[in-house]
Amino acid sequence: MMKESRRFIEILEKRGMAVSERREAIRRIEASDIKAHGQDIPFSYIPLFINDEDLAYLQKNIDVLNRILYKMTRMYVENEEYRKVFAFDKVLERLICLDCNYDEMIPIGRDDFFFDTESGDFAFCEFNTDGSGGMSRDAEITKAILDTFPDRDFLERNGMHPFDVIGSIAENLIRTYRSSSIAVENPLFSITDWREEGVMSDFDRFLAAFRQRGIEARFTDIRDLVFDGKNLVDRTDGRVVNGIYRRAVTSVILEHLEDCRGLIEAVEHNAVVLMGHFRTSLVHSKTSSVALHDRRTWAFLDREEIAFIEKHIPQTYRLKKDTISPELLAEILDNKDAWIIKPEDDFGSHGVYSGMDTPEEEWKKLILSQMDKGDIVQRFCPRFDFELLGPEDERPAKYPLMIGAYVSCGKIVGFYSRAGRAGVIDFGHGGICVTTVKVDGSRSS
Prior knowledge:
This protein has helices spanning 2-14, 19-30, 52-78, 90-97, 135-148, 152-157, 165-178, 200-212, 250-255, 261-268, 281-284, 287-292, 295-298, 303-312, 326-334, 360-369, and strands at 48-51, 109-115, 122-128, 160-162, 188-193, 216-221, 225-227, 232-234, 239-240, 243-246, 273-275, 316-318, 339-343, 353-354, 375-379, 385-388, 397-408, 411-415, 417-419, 432-434, 436-439. It has 445 residues and is of the alpha+beta class.
């Protein structure tokens, strides 16, 4: 990871920071369909490098995490008493517990964490399943960097290339579909979301990937999915949809249940293969981090799994009067830089407040005003600096980096990372995208 980065930086320094090449990479992305909320995406010209050793180490730990998350999901679905740990409303609880016609627990997700390259230590700040996106951003920006980097020989000697995140996920979703008890020979897949909410740059590339693998596929606005009593149908042309890749986030579905009635009824009647079943909402909810520290969860975990949680999952609490002790509340109020507030179930950094970014008096008011409003409060993860090169930087500069690992059917298939110096690492808080290069072998440098 760091060896490749240092050599990459050395080459940039010898080439005067490759100013013209960087400008060309930025120009390519500005001219592309890769946007964030309609805006051009700021990115680091220095990517994150992942070699085989790095990947094996991260996968080993993701295996433990998945074991825990799968056990927790099964227990929730099977044990009514355990559901009290999450205290979801009855509508969400019912969606999560609907039958699923395949065994895979989490076909697609992204686990975000901070990583110390010196010690190998790490801490997960959150897990994403519903609507996990950004794959096209990582792919296109990585390609723009590699295509413009001034030393082609260095890239070739080290076997450097982008991760094929979209292709890998498409293959796993097809495999998940085929494992279903209701799979048909020649299915029609649909990616579904609200058209105005969807990341179409992702969707277009997934549709191409499905078609390249022999699967007919389309995008369907979730409002156009209807259940006719037997099949899920795209009402725009009457076609039966056999498999759904769900990008519609559960929290938004709950706000617009009438829009989603067709999809929900089809799942209720076992009439469609929902890849990204509602049961993945359990892990997506920030309440999952609360539950991971609950002794009722530890009751069905082994010692290795409990130790993993204690070491790698920050302490997380519901911001509720009946769960926050006076001592803990005083700690949160008096040590703002050690805490962050997040909605229990949202996405895109909506409603996230970092004590680090908030003046003391405002922080105290915020904590008290958000009490019993459906938020969690979480210990701030230790953050580690990486040398990166943002669009405004003349030289490499140190940024805290949040690494996001795409995990599909249990395996890491790529990354989508962001860096920033604010407490909330996001484009809306001055953050930048950091893409990932796969290193297939440092044969020489």
